[in-house]
Each structure stands twice: as structure tokens, then as C-alpha cells.
Design goal:
- The protein has 296 residues and is mostly helical.
- It has a single domain, classed as ABC transporter involved in vitamin B12 uptake, BtuC, CATH 1.10.3470.
- It is built from 13 helices and no strands.
- The protein has helices spanning 4-31, 36-53, 61-80, 90-111, 116-124, 132-151, 153-161, 163-168, 173-195, 197-212, 218-243, 247-270, 284-295.
- The longest helix has 28 residues, at 4-31.
- The radius of gyration is 20 Å and the shape is globular.
């Protein structure tokens, strides 16, 4: 029982990450931009590297806002990279941005004289070191972003699931894409500093993929994703203490194990007539065809 206070802040942080990332993961999977968080995380790390190079303290607000500014630039790039006809996959631009940001970060770090350990923590993460103050601050930030997405949920969901219909209704796709990726950048910049890239990626993608095995509606996917993320967080923290393992890596492996278990449950009990079609980015063209034909 003595370890419970020590694990309270990390567990609460994991629940907060589950809440926002499981929702954003639905959009990411539907859009087919699976690695966008890795790219934005690397761009944020590049901003932190530049902050160190110019003499900023990586732990103060100036470095955070500079890093966030870099993610806004990335958000603008990804928003304008979505071509109307889709002849160049948006994921290609995301991969290029990730590679270039990584290379620039390496070049910048080669000129930095110190504080590179902080950059390593940003990429690897140490969720056990999170404080209650950070948890509270992150909860307020994510609550504001969640409220923003709730108010404009129809626009964001329509653009993610059926961009052709959104365009037919007169929505500015690139403008709303920028708002999505900018809010996403807020989340990624803060989450990576707490949990690291690998764990953030799992919170974003795995609950959404697991939910797609059993549900075809957004609401049901969110419920399944949030439930999965909460249970995996609890199990991961418990296993890390029981086996004396790094908490972040343990939660990542637990996510993998639970997803495999969900896959076999779906395979043995739901595969066949009762199986759900896995709607996602691959089906967007099929969904969009009737709208395009009407417009023609």
C-alpha cells in the first residue's frame, strides 16, 4: 500500500492521456494518417532543440511555446498537404516531415552544448516522474481542447469520415484541417513531454484499432477505446511495479498484448456473418463516390 501514493500521479496522467488520445485516434485512423503524431512529436522535439541552441532553459515556458510554434508550422504543412484529388497520399508528406525534422534535430543537437538529456526524456518519456501539478495542468489543457472539439464535432467528424460531403456543404477543408492539427499539436507537445513518443502513439492508435474490431459507429468506438485504455493503464502500472519494469514500456507491451487478445476474440467469436466491416481511410473513396457523382 505504500506505493499507491507514488503511482497515483502516473495513473491519473495515463487516464488523461486515454481520454484525449482515444478520441483523436478515431480521427487519425479515419483520415489514414497513422503516423501524424510521430511526425508532430519530432517537429516539437526540433523546436525544443532549437530552444536549447539559442540558450533557452528547456524547462521554462519560452522553450515550450517555441516547440509549440514548430508544431503549428507542421500543422499548417499537413493541412495544405491534403490535395483535393488525393493523387499524392498525405501520409507521404507526413513521412517526409518526420524524416526532415529528425535530421534537423540531429544537426541542431550536434551544435548544442548541453541539455541533450532533456531531449532524450522528451522522446523516451518517464511517466513515473510526472507530478500532480503537471497532471492538473494537463487535465485543464486537454479539457479545453476536448470542449473545442465537442463544440465543432460535426465539422471535424464529417471532414475525417467523408471529406467529399464536407466540401459539398461548403466547409473549408484546409482551414478545418489546420484547426484539427493545431489542436492535435497542443496535445502531442504536452503528452510527449510526459509519456514519450512510443506510449503516446499507443494511446492514440491502439484503442481506436481495437474498437474497430467490435464497433462501426464512432460513439461505440469511443466507449470501447476509453475502456480499453483505462484497463490497460491500470494493468501496465500494476505489472511494472510487480515485475520491477519501466512503466512506459510496460504499458506499451500491455497494449500490444491486449490488442492481440481482442483480435483473437474477434476472430473466434465475431468473424463471419456477424463481423463488422472495418471502415477507415481505405473506405473513404467508396463513401465519397455517391457525393462526387451527384456533383457531376
Amino acid at each position: 500500500m505504500e506505493i499507491l501514493p507514488f503511482l497515483l500521479a502516473p495513473f491519473l496522467a495515463s487516464l488523461i492521456l486515454t481520454g484525449i488520445h482515444a478520441y483523436l485516434g478515431v480521427h487519425v485512423v479515419e483520415r489514414g494518417v497513422i503516423f501524424v503524431d510521430l511526425a508532430l512529436a519530432q517537429i516539437a522535439a526540433l523546436g525544443a532543440t532549437v530552444a536549447i541552441l539559442v540558450g533557452m532553459d528547456p524547462h521554462n515556458g519560452g522553450a515550450y511555446w517555441l516547440s509549440l510554434g514548430f508544431t503549428f508550422v507542421g500543422a499548417a504543412i499537413f493541412a495544405f498537404a491534403r490535395t483535393r484529388r488525393g493523387h499524392i497520399p498525405q501520409e507521404a508528406f507526413i513521412g517526409i516531415a518526420y524524416a526532415v525534422a529528425s535530421a534537423l534535430a540531429i544537426l541542431t543537437m550536434s551544435k548544442a552544448t548541453g541539455e541533450t538529456e532533456h531531449l532524450k526524456d522528451m522522446l523516451v518519456g518517464n511517466i513515473l516522474a510526472v507530478s500532480m501539478h503537471e497532471v492538473t495542468k494537463t487535465a485543464i489543457l486537454y479539457g479545453a481542447i476536448g470542449l473545442f472539439h465537442y463544440i465543432f464535432r460535426q465539422q471535424f467528424l464529417l471532414i475525417s469520415t467523408n471529406p467529399a460531403a464536407a466540401e459539398a456543404k461548403g466547409l473549408n477543408i484546409r482551414f478545418w484541417d489546420f484547426l484539427f492539427y493545431a489542436s492535435f499539436g497542443f496535445v502531442v507537445t504536452s503528452s510527449v513531454a510526459i509519456a514519450g513518443v512510443l506510449l503516446v502513439f499507443c494511446y492514440l492508435i491502439v484503442p481506436s484499432v481495437g474498437a474497430m474490431l467490435f464497433a462501426d459507429r464512432i460513439g461505440r468506438r469511443l466507449v470501447i477505446g476509453w475502456t480499453m485504455g483505462t484497463l490497460v493503464s491500470a494493468l501496465g502500472v500494476y505489472f511494472s511495479v510487480l515485475l520491477d519494469l519501466p512503466t512506459g514500456a510496460t504499458i506499451v507491451c500491455t497494449f500490444g498484448g491486449v490488442l492481440i487478445l481482442m483480435f483473437f476474440i474477434h476472430l473466434f467469436f465475431f468473424h463471419g456473418r456477424k463481423a463488422h466491416d472495418l471502415h477507415g481511410a481505405a473506405s473513404q473513396e467508396q463513401v465519397a463516390q455517391p457525393v462526387l457523382q451527384e456533383r457531376r
